[in-house]
Amino acid sequence: MHDDDLLTPREAARLLRVSVPTLAWWARIGALKPALHTPGGHRRYRRADVLAFRESADREDPERGRREQDAVRLYEQGWSIRQVADRFDCGYGTMRRILMRRTTLRGPNDRHRPY
């Protein structure tokens, strides 16, 4: 195994679009096991394992893509991140990350509001 094939938890989390604590939790429950632990006890993940995990998660929840598109549509119609998050019953931070992946977020001085 080449070092290029191994990812740090931060790199793996970025590819999966989750937080490092979420990745650590998945490791603890066995959902995505690290390929190895360094002598210092740090986890390393195989790039191929991380990409396969991401693909399987996308296939298992095709509805997620539709929900995310609906969230973007509402945001682009002028809803605030908080309003969209409340509509989909999720946290502000989670919704912000979803929207950041799919659209350009408005700045604090943009006053676009729904009619």
Automatic annotation (TrEMBL):
<dbReference type="GO" id="GO:0003677">
    <property type="term" value="F:DNA binding"/>
</dbReference>
<dbReference type="InterPro" id="IPR009061">
    <property type="entry name" value="DNA-bd_dom_put_sf"/>
</dbReference>
<dbReference type="Pfam" id="PF12728">
    <property type="entry name" value="HTH_17"/>
</dbReference>
<dbReference type="Pfam" id="PF13384">
    <property type="entry name" value="HTH_23"/>
</dbReference>
<protein>
    <recommendedName>
        <fullName>HTH merR-type domain-containing protein</fullName>
    </recommendedName>
</protein>
<dbReference type="InterPro" id="IPR041657">
    <property type="entry name" value="HTH_17"/>
</dbReference>
<dbReference type="GO" id="GO:0006355">
    <property type="term" value="P:regulation of DNA-templated transcription"/>
</dbReference>
<feature type="domain" description="HTH merR-type">
    <location>
        <begin position="6"/>
        <end position="55"/>
    </location>
</feature>
<dbReference type="InterPro" id="IPR000551">
    <property type="entry name" value="MerR-type_HTH_dom"/>
</dbReference>
